Automatic annotation (TrEMBL):
NCBIfam families: pimt, PRK00312.1. This is Protein-L-isoaspartate O-methyltransferase. Catalyzes the methyl esterification of L-isoaspartyl residues in peptides and proteins that result from spontaneous decomposition of normal L-aspartyl and L-asparaginyl residues. It plays a role in the repair and/or degradation of damaged proteins. GO terms for biological process: methylation; protein repair. InterPro entries: PCMT (IPR000682), SAM-dependent_MTases_sf (IPR029063). Its EC number is 2.1.1.77. GO terms for cellular component: cytoplasm. Belongs to the methyltransferase superfamily. L-isoaspartyl/D-aspartyl protein methyltransferase family. The keyword Transmembrane does not apply.
Length: 230
């Protein structure tokens, strides 16, 4: 698999050679230990988060806070999601049969995208703000993440042309989810999204042979899902 974060890919040394994030390995390990204490999380997700240099997804002035369990501003009124949220959403998405292709709605910084790309063969991610998508593209390219297709546009109704998806992960909150999103979900596919306006809850919808199964995963605090291009 052409992904630099896959365990056993031997890319650790090339990352080291490029000087990417090696100085922060200990702070990253500490963050992951904290996350594991806070919530039951998939060990595969924790492994990946131990490797991905989150500080490269925020501006330099905020890099020293990149391994705190907090969301941070990324410009344009948007935020990089809190590490615990990324870990919980990704863990919830992985539960079930293996994922081949996943759609992320709301690329933002591209950090969640990188986490997904290390775990899933094919990731499609859509972002409505062109400048954020361009920055995410640069970081993912520098990290040699090659199994991601980034699209600029409104993903509030998904991206039907590239579906169906085994997983859909929405990183912005909508009061209601467009029915088209569920149509793009393959059988056994999971959709994870924060739903609500003033009060949000993280929800998982699983497509079964007989219909959709819905679970509430907990409270959430996300920026709103907006319509149209940014
Ligand atoms: N996963 C990202 C989260 C960024 S915040 C990260 O951790 O960095 C949510 C993102 O969703 C913002 O970048 C916002 O611009 C984007 N967004 C909001 N509405 C959208 C829509 N309709 N289509 C695509 N992206 C959208």
């Amino acid at each position: 698999m052409s992904n630099p974060f896959h365990a056993g890919s031997g890319s650790g040394s090339s990352q080291q050679a490029a000087g990417i994030g090696m100085t922060s390995q200990r702070t990253r390990d500490r963050l992951v230990e904290l996350l594991a204490q806070l919530s039951p999380l998939d060990p595969r997700v924790l492994d990946v988060m131990r490797q991905i240099p989150r500080h490269l997804f925020v501006e330099e002035a905020l890099a020293s806070r990149a391994y705190d369990n907090v969301s941070l501003p990324i410009g344009h009124g948007q935020t990089i999601s809190q590490p615990l949220t990324v870990a919980q959403m990704t863990s919830a998405l992985l539960q079930g049969p293996p994922l081949r292709r996943v759609l992320e709605i709301g690329t933002g910084s591209g950090y969640q995208t990188a986490v997904l790309a290390a775990l899933v063969p094919e990731v499609v991610s859509i972002e409505r703000i062109g400048a954020l998508a361009a920055q995410a593209r640069r970081v993912l390219r520098d990290l040699r993440v090659r199994n991601v297709a980034l699209v600029v546009g409104d993903g509030s109704q998904g991206l039907p042309g590239k579906g169906p998806y085994d997983g859909i992960l929405i990183t912005a909150a909508a009061a209601t989810l467009a029915p088209q999103l569920f149509e793009q979900l393959a059988e056994d596919g999971r959709l994870i999204a924060p739903v609500g306006s003033s009060e949000q809850a993280l929800r998982r919808f699983t497509r079964t042979a007989t219909g959709l199964h819905e679970e509430r995963l907990g409270a959430a605090h996300f920026v709103p899902l907006r319509r149209g291009r940014g």
